[in-house]
Amino acid sequence: xxxxxxxxxxxxxxxxxxxxxxxxxxxxxxxxxxxxxxxxxxxxxxxxxxxxxxxxxxxxxxxxxxxxxxxxxxxxxxxxxxxxxxxxxxxxxxxxxxxxxxxxxxxxxxxxxxxxxxxxxxxxxxxxxxxxxxxxxxxxxxxxxxxxxxxxxxxxxxxxxxxxxxxxxxxxxxxxxxxxxxxxxxxxxxxxxxxxxxxxxxxxxxxxxxxxxxxxxxxxxxxxxxxxxxxxxxxxxxxxxxxxxxxxxxxxxxxxxxxxxxxxxxxxxxxxxxxxxxxxxxxxxxxxxxxxxxxxxxxxxxxxxxxxxxxxxxxxxxxxxxxxxxxxxxxxxxxxxxxxxxxxxxxxxxxxxxxxxxxxxxxxxxxxxxxxxxxxxxxxxxxxxxxxxxxxxxxxxxxxxxxxxxxxxxxxxxxxxxxxxxxxxxxxxxxxxxxxxxxxxxxxxxxxxxxxxxxxxxxxxxxxxxxxxxxxxxxxxxxxxxxxxxxxxxxxxxxxxxxxxxxxxxxxxxxxxxxxxxxxxxxxxxxxxxxxxxxxxxxxxxxxxxxxxxxxxxxxxxxxxx
Amino acid sequence: xxxxxxxxxxxxxxxxxxxxxxxxxxxxxxxxxxxxxxxxxxxxxxxxxxxxxxxxxxxxxxxxxxxxxxxxxxxxxxxxxxxxxxxxxxxxxxxxxxxxxxxxxxxxxxxxxxxxxxxxxxxxxxxxxxxxxxxxxxxxxxxxxxxxxxxxxxxxxxxxxxxxxxxxxxxxxxxxxxxxxxxxxxxxxxxxxxxxxxxxxxxxxxxxxxxxxxxxxxxxxxxxxxxxxxxxxxxxxxxxxxxxxxxxxxxxxxxxxxxxxxxxxxxxxxxxxxxxxxxxxxxxxxxxxxxxxxxxxxxxxxxxxxxxxxxxxxxxxxxxxxxxxxxxxxxxxxxxxxxxxxxxxxxxxxxxxxxxxxxxxxxxxxxxxxx
Lengths: 562, 371
Fold this sequence. Notes:
The complex is a heterodimer of chains A (562) and B (371). Chain A is of the alpha/beta class and 562 residues long. Chain A contains 16 helices and 19 strands. Chain A has helices at residues 13-24, 59-69, 76-96, 128-142, 210-217, 245-248, 262-265, 275-287, 306-312, 314-324, 380-399, 411-423, 432-446, 453-469, 484-508, 526-529, and strands at 3-9, 29-33, 49-50, 110-111, 121-122, 147-151, 153-160, 166-173, 179-189, 222-223, 228-235, 252-254, 297-300, 333-342, 345-347, 359-361, 366-367, 531-537, 543-549. In chain A, the strands form four sheets. In chain A, strands 1, 2, 6, 7, 8, 9 and 16 form a seven-stranded mixed β-sheet that branches. The longest helix of chain A is centred in the last third of the chain and has 25 residues, at 484-508. The model of chain A has no long low-confidence stretch (mean pLDDT 96). By secondary structure, chain B is of the alpha+beta class. Chain B has three domains: 2-110, Roll (Ubiquitin-like (UB roll)); 113-241, Alpha-helical ferredoxin (Fumarate Reductase Iron-sulfur Protein, Chain B, domain 2); 250-337, no CATH class. The termini of chain B are far apart. The chains are: A alpha/beta (562), B alpha+beta (371). Chains A and B meet through helix 3, helix 4, helix 9, helix 10 and helix 13 of A and helix 1, helix 3 and helix 4 of B.
């Protein structure tokens, strides 16, 4: 039975960074992931990572942009830490081997990004996430003796002792179907977001809210769940992402009348306003009949010199060619806002600690909150790395103060019982994919860029009904080797818990702030709503709303224009 | 909408039965991907079909498979293209099989740890940074970073490993993906041990000289990494820049090959072997090492003659080509050698294959005519 000081669940950027930091701090570390680490969704982050590393730039400027981007819902103490530590993190990555873009003098070069007052985004072509993820995995391979890797292991449940502290997890070896208890002094959730609760989404099929739901079920509060980022440039047909780097490099947005409509909505920053602002502008154009017949807007990348596009935006050249049949260097590509990122997640402090002892969270699964109502582009990679590292360091420190827990192997019987119950379901229920589709389409319809009470109530009812149907969803695969059917059934439950919290948060927040725009409450209302909304599970297992204060240090809320 | 016949190679390790092919009918638009078709089957017909997949957009590298006999990503292959190529090519039928050169775990899922990741681990896949580590970033030329970004673009999908012919013959061959990974460090000016890395891979009998230039990996790669090109660059850097003369004779063989083509315009088989082993001149054949190698190679030579891959006459006397053609071949050598430095083709630097600036195109045509 594996036992480690620090157990990390999820092996994207946050998880791998946490593992390396915890190992550096002297802890024995294990990292579990339901996919091979380089398949993690961090791989899809395209545009870059923000840091005020240039001497002309300052962390205060970065922090202010982030606070303003968050529509003043971000916690400023945490934002300060993230922006102060960003330059050193970039240098750490550079020294570890990330092949960051260089300028003519051979120094690190930047590109412009949305909502930022300086060009402070460091990048590797448009495969920044991939380049960093693969370099971190190189480091994990280098430190194989210090970090045990459990690749393709699926976590089914967190383990808690009698006092409620998290002391490990039960996971299923996907290749054999065997269940195993992992004992750990500290557990860090780093299992990413929940975009699959929406359809379409830019998120990978693995982004099913696992960690959010696991923490919630263990009693940890969720926070800012209503804040779902719709990315301004996604492909209509399949939701694939066109990086913000395209607009950073100079691409324009046009409606069907050929108007560069951002002049109306953000006269100063135009296409490089915050994502919530651009997405709302696009959706308004589409709703008011100025979009293209397929409900889209045109993104014109031909403004960018062709050679530059081919070098710096190569991946979206390929995406355009392979998935939309468009040569983006010669013609505009049609896009629309699409579900991309969840600002909310498991509530943590700036060391990644959740209110549940022994449980940490970092990356998209967590809500520190540095993104508040709206995340700036290229701040998510930074979030994963800074708070991944801080979680790893803190968890290792904590591990020195507690004894190694020992969970009785009998818990495996319960876990196996749950798996068996899924395997032995009677046939005749709805298919998992059917339920998932209905969930995704409902969320994308009612919990999107524009929301109102009526739509949210419909979404809530639908989610409730789906929660009742899900336990009877039919299973075809009865085997133990790579039984993806069983995993999909468990993931469906995670998505539904997450979706319920998202809808409840959106219903509760009766104002418009960041990504939450209520057509029935169109103004931001600092008097009543300048606080976080939390959702936790009560003693009966029902979700319960609460609030948490927003930390304000230097920057008082102001009107937000771009 | 179009209807496709999706034939999936199934294998259930728990059944005790051999792999078999199961047929499904799928209706989808022709520009949709093979992965979408498989997921449609999984979602609507049979949830037990096993395939790794995640991003759906050719970034995560999970869904490497063989489609109508050709390796690639399921998410990156249009149904219409898949149905028109490879073993079926009837516009309707698409056979999807697990990748080759790796053991199958279930259905379309292979054991990448056992082969692919083991080979990656073999090339010391992490930066060995030059000391002292600078306080800020390493200052390195823009072009070098763009250069290694081509290999950084590898998503570790295994498509190149799947159909590597050299690996099929020699399972110990380090292979295309791991070689590309090695170039990612050899080409990185921040790495301190380029010579050691190259020496290691040149001296390994299953290393960079084990590749037979078949181009399959370049065809297979969905990300333009061109693994074989990286292998060739590793060789050029090893021999040309670091003057590594390996015990596999890779360097001498390559030199002999080049000088024979220069001299004859075509390969002169009878000269190649002695020159590779005995020194790159007509006298090479009298070297004892050449004699030994010739004796060892007799069975292969006999087989090649029997299968008419070579004729004894052509092999012994060399192939003759018209004088003008020979001159043209030698003109290529002269032109390349007259350049001060070696030009490496890298799509990340040079742009695209079909860079169609009219002026450049016109110039290159007239130059090749004059040559």
